[in-house]
Each structure stands twice: as structure tokens, then as C-alpha cells.
Design brief:
Belongs to the PA-PLA1 family. The protein is α/β, with parallel strands linked by helices. The protein has 23 helices and 18 strands.
């Protein structure tokens, strides 16, 4: 190669995001010859932004596939045969490159916009951006025609860019809007032939500046870093399926963008905190909504034309919740997500055969309604089961009341008939099972189920799940189905609810665990964090600026802070009306109360509903008694693992504005990226430590 990076190499290298090889620049050849495959660098461009270089491993394999097409690349395939080269798998296996069409496309999801790829041979000094391929090919051809076989200069300044003062061009090439001058074999400059550039060049030359330094751009032949097969991503040992909630009909590509944001933030965290581990976590979007037909266009046809834009937005977003509660479409939504999860897992394993052999793990991150559908798929919950439970309850109530002899006889006859029907169904099911083995609902075991901004708790409460006496996660999600359930939410997210009080009631007065800021120095491990109780001494009617600043945590604090309670931005009048609704019954009003008025509802377990309701009504806007939470300070039962984890509020965050934006603020959060990786890599770290001990 005639050019190894040229002057300005060290400055440009420092700014590059690429991993540097030990030893610095590329090896230099003594004579000019054709570029080696390792000197060429391939690039891709997403969202019309700047060209990004493929890592060495990817670039080298693309270049070898390119050369396999024939001497002229895609334009000139070998005579008598079609250009048929296998697509090259790139970017940790998430994309493929079709060299013939110079395009890249995703493997696991559909994307309408293709990603262009480009072969880089000549590069701009400093930025190391490639010249457009057409110009690059012309310059390369001219360079080889003129200088091939010529000796290169022995001394080469690697420090600072020196202008080629007084040097005349020994060779020149005219391009459409530019021209290239060779001042020596490895001093090549590109000049723009635009009118403004000509004027600038004339003025600067008259002032005594050289032609090259005044308006020329230094070019380098061959990339700053040699491509090697060792420069490859680690093997994926943990895959994360990212499941969207409502609103994907409105913006079909949103989950792909959101997953890309989560993947990028996780990469930053992985490089900063987990680079010493062999673990590599990969995020795959699960787009289950767009393939469903549901009602076709029936809902659209019955939508009035007034305020059409707003109505269409609601139809495309909130309508998914109505579809899910509809017995007609619920199964279609569940089946759509289940099939997509299994399709992605099967495809991933077929392309990564070692994943299962080496004990690769699978986690799921679900958002909003996606949490409820994922939960129902994992547990196999169906409304039919709830209906059967209601029938059974009716039968039990029927047995308890007084019956005449005739009623008793008919009831016994009904029981016998039902028993006989059950036996026939079981026999029939047994015959079917012997011929067709029913596959498991999911083809993989879920290691961690992360819920973000999840309404799952409210769905479970409305299905009749009530707190128990055991602190086990099995009360709502058996460990045999999913090893760990984690519920992440922003304190002002209006869609998110807590899960812990559904397992143990007294946890309604225990603060969720505060998620560490990603830049916290030496954070306390989550399993060592002690519970913080919700027992505010004052009930403010609104949040003042001074209060919000004074109670905000410092980014460097790691222990649990005393959590600001819900509902402090609601006026006492508003709260009183909610409390009034809560006292009507223990249904949705009770849940609303527990959501917004929890700070004043510290009733002891074991008290009956009426007494609790009276107490709620009398404590509105007054400080709680010092002994009001004494029943919770030393609970007899604790959770095996904490489930509710809360993001810390920003220092200058508006409570009202964040209520609007918080439901979608999870994807790009570095705090959440660190949280996810902490739990996923923790298990892998424990496994590796255990295997090391076994070896010893």
C-alpha cells in the first residue's frame, strides 16, 4: 500500500470509535501494489447519517465475498455464470449483506428501508470517511496505472500534517466536480473545482500559502486500521426478546427503533462495566402486532369523521387493550405473540447452533400491555379458567343452602353426568395426545421476565388474585416457568402498577427498590438493600421548587433514599374524592386509592374493611400517627426476592410533564440498561465462578 494513514494519523485514530490493534498503524509495503483485502474497509449507513465502518471481522468477510464475484465486483460477474454469492452475516449476526446489490438488511425483523453498504479504498484525512465508491475506483485505477511497482519513501512523518510547500503535482486526475493531485507517491490531495473554491485558492496563493494546504483535502489509500478476523464480536450467550405494548399499529417500526436504542445503551454499559466477562447479551425486537388482521376495518368504518385524527390515534393505540379484553380477539393476540417468540428463537438457534449446547439463556423485556400478554403465554392463563372457577363457586354456594328432595336428586344426577363427561373428554384427549404430541407453549425457559411500565398487577387484581402468606414469587409466577420476575417503573408512569403488595399485603407500605444511577460509584448490590418504609411526616398539597430540589437525591448516592410518596401532587380535595370512591367498595376504587392515596392508608393487616375505610376517611390531609406503621416495621414474612424497582426522578423533572412522557422513557435509559445487565450477567458470573471452583 502506498499510504498507511499519512500525517494526522494519531489525531484521527484517537477520535475513532473502533477498537485499536496493538502496535498502531498498518504494515507498509516497499512498493505500490493492489490493496489487500485487509486494507479495504466496508461501511454502512443508517437513517441517512454518516458512513459507519464495519468491524474488521465483518469487513474482511464482505471483501472476500466481493472478490468472489469476479475481477470487477458486482458489475462484472464471471463470464457464463450468474453472480451468486451467499449473503454475509454481519453486526453480531443481526444483519446480512448482499454484496451484489450493495445492501444490508436485518435477519430477525422486517424493515422497508434497505441499508446501503459501500467499499472504502480512499479516505479523507482526519475523519477517515470513505470517498464515494465511483470516485474512489477512478483514483485507485489511476494510482495503480501511474505508480504500480514504484518504491515508496522510507521516511514517513506520522506526527503532524505538514503542507507540501513548493511541491508541484507530479500527476493529476480530473473528476466531474473535483480533481486529484499527486505531489508524491504517498502525498495525494483532492481539490474542489467549484467557483468559490477557485477564488479562495487564488487569494490564498497570492498571500503566500501553498496550493495543497490552502484548499486541498489530504487523501489516504487504505484504511487507518487493518481488518483482521480476530476483531470479532463475542459469542452471544444471552438473548433478550423485547416485546412492545399498545400503539404499534400507529407506528409499526417503533419497537425496532426502541430495541435499537436499548441495544446501543446496553453496549455502552457492557463495554464500561462488563467487558471482563465473556457474556454477550443480544436484544431482539418482537413485532407481533402488524401481522394480525383482528376486525379488519370494521372499527375504522364505525368511527365518526369529527376529530378524525384524534380518533384514529386512539384506534391505533388504546384499542389494543379493548381487543385484548374481547373474548373474540384475545386468542389472536396471544397466538400472534407466542408464534413470533417461537419463530425468533428457532431462527436464532438455527443460525447459532452452539447457543443451546453451551446453555444459552433467554430473558424477556416487555412494555405496557406486552407484559400482560407475555405473562398469559408463560402461565397459560385463559378467561375460560376463570369462568370454570366461577361455576365451581356457584356449585359450592348451591350446596350450602337448603334444598328440597327433588332439587337434591337432580343435583346428584348433574354431578354424575358432569363426571362422566369429564372422563370421556380425558379419554378423547388421551387418544389425541398419543397421535399428536402437543408442543410446549414456548420453546424456551425464561430466565428473567422484566416488566416495564406494566399494568399487569391491575389485571391480576381484577382476576381475583389477592395477597397470600408466603413471600414467594410463585404466588403470581411460578419459578418453574420463570426464574425471576422484575417490575420496573417510573414513579410518575400512569400505566404502571406495583406487584409486591399482591404477594404480601404489608409491602404496600414498603418502598420499591430504587434503581441505581448508571454513574453511581460503588453501588450497594440490590440484594443487600434494606427496605425503606412509606411513612411521610407531612402531607403537602403541592410540590414547590424548593421542596423538589431539597428532597432530590444526589447522583452519587447509592443506598436507598426515603422515597417520596405517590399522590403529593394531588390536592386534598382531589384526594378526598378518590377516598370517597375507595370507600364504596374494594374494587377498582380501592386500587385507585392504593395508587394515589397510599401515604394516608397505613391500616394494619387483619383489620376489617369497614374499619380500614373509616380510618382512611378520617386521615385525609393530616399527618399519620407515629404508631401507624408499627405493624409493618418487623413483618413476620418477607419476600424471597424484591420485585418492584423504581427509577429515580430527575432533578428538574416536571411531575405533570413526566406523567405524559415517562411511559415511553425506558428505552434509552442508561440506568435501566445497567439494571438489566446486572441481573443477566450476575447469573452468568455465578455460573463461571462455580465452574472455576469445580475445575479447582
Amino acid at each position: 500500500s502506498s499510504e498507511s494513514g499519512g500525517s494526522g494519523f494519531s489525531l484521527a485514530a484517537a477520535a475513532l470509535p473502533e477498537r485499536r490493534r496493538p502496535g498502531g498503524g498498518r504494515p507498509r509495503y516497499e512498493v505500490v501494489r493492489e490493496l489487500g483485502a485487509e486494507e479495504v474497509r466496508w461501511f454502512y449507513r443508517e437513517d441517512r447519517k454518516t458512513w459507519k465502518p464495519f468491524i474488521g471481522y465483518d469487513s474482511l468477510r464482505i471483501e472476500l465475498a466481493y472478490r468472489a464475484l469476479g475481477p470487477g465486483g458486482p458489475a462484472e460477474p464471471r463470464e457464463g455464470e450468474a453472480a451468486a454469492v451467499e449473503p454475509v452475516c454481519v453486526r453480531s449476526g443481526l444483519y446480512e449483506v448482499d454484496v451484489a446489490s450493495a445492501e444490508s438488511y436485518p435477519v430477525y425483523w422486517n424493515q422497508t428501508e434497505k441499508i446501503p453498504v459501500m467499499r472504502g479504498q480512499w479516505f479523507i484525512d482526519g475523519t477517515w470517511q470513505p470517498l464515494e465508491e465511483e470516485e474512489s475506483n477512478l483514483i485507485e485505477q489511476e494510482h495503480l496505472n501511474r505508480f504500480k511497482g514504484q518504491q515508496l519513501q522510507e521516511s514517513f512523518d506520522m506526527e503532524v500534517s505538514k503542507p507540501v510547500d513548493g511541491k508541484e503535482a507530479i500527476h493529476s486526475l480530473k473528476l466531474s466536480r473535483n480533481h486529484v493531485d499527486w505531489h508524491s507517491v504517498d502525498e495525494v490531495y483532492l481539490y474542489s473545482d467549484a467557483t468559490t473554491s477557485k477564488i479562495a485558492r487564488t487569494v490564498t496563493q497570492k498571500l503566500g500559502f501553498s496550493k495543497a494546504s490552502s484548499s486541498g483535502t489530504r487523501l489516504h489509500r487504505g484504511y487507518v486500521e487493518e481488518a483482521t478476523l480476530e476483531d470479532k464480536p463475542p459469542q452471544t450467550s444471552h438473548i433478550v426478546f423485547v416485546v412492545h405494548g399498545i400503539g404499534q399499529k400507529m407506528d409499526q417500526g417503533r419497537i425496532i427503533k426502541n430495541t435499537a436504542m436499548m441495544r446501543d445503551t446496553a453496549r455502552k454499559i457492557e463495554e464500561k462495566y462488563f467487558s471482563n466477562l465473556a457474556t454477550h447479551v443480544e436484544f431482539l425486537p418482537v413485532e407481533w402486532r402488524s401481522k394480525l388482521t383482528l376486525d379488519g376495518d370494521t372499527v375504522d368504518s364505525i368511527t365518526p369523521d369529527k376529530v378524525r385524527g384524534l380518533r384514529d390515534m386512539l384506534n391505533s393505540s388504546a384499542m389494543d387493550i379493548m381487543y385484548y379484553t374481547s373474548p373474540l380477539y384475545r386468542d389472536e393476540l396471544v397466538k400472534g405473540l407466542q408464534q413470533e417468540l417461537n419463530r425468533l428463537y428457532t431462527l436464532f438457534c438455527s443460525r447459532n447452533p452452539e447457543f443451546e449446547e453451551k446453555g444459552g439463556k433467554v430473558s424477556i423485556v416487555s412494555h405496557s400491555l406486552g407484559c400482560v400478554i407475555t405473562y398469559d403465554i408463560m402461565t397459560g392463563w385463559n378467561p375460560v379458567r376463570l369462568y370454570e372457577q366461577l361455576l365451581q363457586k356457584e356449585e359450592e354456594e348451591l350446596e350450602d343452602r337448603w334444598m328440597s328432595y327433588e332439587e337434591q336428586r337432580l343435583l346428584e344426577e348433574l354431578y354424575i353426568t358432569k363426571q362422566r363427561l369429564r372422563e370421556i373428554e380425558e379419554r378423547l384427549h388421551g387418544l389425541k395426545a398419543s397421535t399428536i404430541s402437543k408442543p410446549p407453549v414456548l420453546k424456551f425457559k425464561v430466565e428473567n421476565f422484566f416488566c416495564m411500565g406494566s399494568p399487569l398487577a391491575v389485571f391480576l387484581a381484577l382476576r381475583g388474585i389477592r395477597p397470600g402468606n408466603s413471600g414467594s414469587q410463585d404466588h403470581i409466577l411460578p419459578r418453574t416457568i420463570c426464574n425471576r420476575l422484575l417490575n420496573i417503573f417510573h414513579p410518575t408512569d400512569p400505566v404502571a402498577y406495583r406487584l409486591e403488595p399482591l404477594i404480601l399485603k404489608h409491602y404496600s407500605n414498603i418502598s420499591p427498590v430504587q434503581i441505581h444511577w448508571y454513574n453511581t460509584a460503588n453501588p450497594l448490590p440490590y440484594e443487600h438493600m434494606k427496605p425503606s418504609f412509606l411513612n411521610p411526616t407531612k402531607e403537602p398539597t403541592s410540590v414547590t421548587d424548593s421542596e423538589s430540589v431539597s428532597t432530590a437525591p444526589s447522583p452519587t448516592t447509592s443506598p436507598v433514599m426515603v422515597r417520596r410518596h405517590y399522590g403529593e401532587s394531588i390536592t386534598n380535595i382531589g384526594k378526598a374524592s378518590i377516598l370517597g370512591a375507595a370507600s364504596i367498595g374494594k374494587g377498582l376504587g380501592g386500587m385507585l386509592f392504593s395508587r394515589f392515596g397510599r401515604s394516608s392508608t397505613t391500616t394494619e393487616p387483619g383489620k376489617d374493611g369497614a374499619e380500614g375505610d373509616d380510618k382512611k376517611a378520617t386521615t385525609v390531609g393530616t399527618p399519620p400517627l407515629p404508631h401507624s406503621s408499627s405493624g409493618f416495621l418487623e413483618p413476620t414474612v418477607e419476600l424471597e426476592h424484591r420485585i418492584d424497582f423504581e427509577l429515580r426522578e430527575g432533578l428538574v423533572e416536571s411531575r405533570y410533564w413526566s406523567a405524559v412522557t415517562s411511559h415511553t422513557a425506558y428505552w434509552s435509559s442508561l440506568d435501566i440498561a445497567l439494571f438489566l445487565l446486572t441481573f443477566m450477567c450476575k447469573h452468568d458470573q455465578e455460573d463461571s465462578d462455580k465452574s472455576n471452583l469445580d475445575t479447582l
